[in-house]
Design a protein that fits this description.
Elements: H1 8-36, H2 46-57, H3 66-85, H4 102-115
Length: 121
């Protein structure tokens, strides 16, 4: 039994039990929170979660879906940040290694260069 691989049937059973435990635990925590404050949305109930999913999937008055608009905006932000991360900085190689990591340092310096504060650190 020790160091033996788990059989496929046991893997499926354990996977289903873990998902069931996760769902039951979430339901219990949500129910407990909503007994204190029924309008609380920090831990939404299943009905609140359904309404939220319904809201971002269905088209609004402008016939636009929120999830599509948000995905496009997220892609634009992500690609702009990736471009900023790869901008070279004058004298960046001669400076000591920053504590946050090289990519964060270069991105921060690039943003400061863009707004005119080249030696902001």
């Amino acid at each position: 039994m020790i160091r033996r691989p788990i059989t496929r049937s046991w893997a499926v059973i354990l996977g289903c039990l873990s998902m069931l435990l996760l769902l039951v635990g979430y339901t219990w925590v949500s129910h407990r929170q909503h007994q204190v404050n029924p309008d609380d949305t920090t831990i939404p109930s299943w009905s609140q979660m359904y309404k939220g999913v319904e809201k971002f999937i269905q088209p609004d008055q402008k016939e636009e879906r929120w999830i599509v608009e948000d995905s496009i905006a997220t892609r634009a932000i992500t690609t702009s940040r990736l471009r900023i991360n790869h901008l070279p900085r004058k004298g960046a190689l001669s400076q000591p290694e920053p504590p946050l990591g090289r990519d964060s340092w270069v991105a921060s310096c690039a943003v400061l260069d863009m707004i005119g504060l080249e030696d902001g650190f």
